[in-house]
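Researcher: Please predict.
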Amino acid sequence: MSGGREDAPIDAGDLQDRRLLFLQGPLSPLFKLIGRDFASRGGEVHRINFCAGDWFHWHGPECTSYRGTPEKWPDFLAEFVDRNRITDLVLHGDQRLYHRLAIEKAIDRGVFIAVTELGALRPGWMTLEQNGLSTLSHFPVAPDAIKEIASAAGEIDLSPRYPGSFWLQTGPDVFYNLSNVLLKFLYPNYQQHTLYPPVLEYARGAMRLVSQARRDRVADMLLKQIQTGGRPYFVLPLQLEGDFQLRRHSPFGSFSEVLELVIASFAKAAPQDASLVIKSHPLDVGFENWPTVTEETAAGHGVAGRVHFLDGGGLGPVLEKAAGMVTVNSTAGVEALQMGVPVKTLVPAHFDIEGLTSRSPLGSFWQAPEPPDAQLLDNYIRALAASTQVRGSIHNREGVLVAARNMADRIASRELNSYGGYVDPPPRLARARELGVPL
């Protein structure tokens, strides 16, 4: 099996003793398609809906609505799993309130857990791991183990496929969240996993779209000035306040804490001729007013003229001439590594591996950024693609069909974190807890 090719379907007879329970999926038909595929092979399929948006994505005789409080959810889930003799649990993201509580109950009962997420090798990939993601991933961190996975997997087609559609990304999101607002009375106890009121967030997002062309022009002009100045610059990509990578897989309560830490270190230890470029997130709608927060933080540390905020444009051009990137744990770090840019993570990201990312303290990184080992990076990308990534995309009409078929095959065969890509306990977890990660 390889992440670069499509696998042969499993015989239906192999699945007659399998009973899948789906919780919340991505905002696409993905989970319903996987369930339909699995049922066609003889498996039994169940789904629990928590809100109106869930119901619109998937409703039918195999679906059950949970309308209780979050406090009663663990007992409900445990009874549901026992009564229906559930063998497999499938969910999108491992840190939503309902999902992390469900994973605890499932592990206690020996249920096989498949966790999906957007791909680490976008575009054209989805993530599928056993038990957990990011800090909780069981994918190894030892370079020798990664090399063995890459060797066993062989060559993998990494060419980009299934380009994303803006409307397939935003349309389902708007419909889902507005459904939950307008039909709240049907699921009055539902606790959403996002931070902001959806209507207000969409209003701000629309305003950002109107100003995008102007912001891109301004960012491009500022980037050209920085790059033609001939002085080194480092990059810090913003992560969304609502991103579980920040909220649950890091010790930071807000990205403002990250800005304070990084800018303070930069002011104290970076070369005097170096600059720091803060890059906005493309999905940020401006609740926190990061340009102002950045300006005030930089001024407070006496480096206002050396810290720049790019509120537009793409990340790729910024990385082209960067001396290094500092990130909490964003998958933007993988993009930077692929461009040969030295990377320093603030917590144990999935790609935070000796030989790929800096082992130096942040203060030392400014002075001597360490480029990634090219051979190890090649091994990591191939091992990742073969073990935890599947072809397909929820933001492409053909891609979602491919993703559903490939994920159904992987779940049916239980070949997640394959080729030795599963080690226990999760190898990043102890170090993350030492840094204060609340897991």
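Model: The first helix runs from residue 30 to 40.
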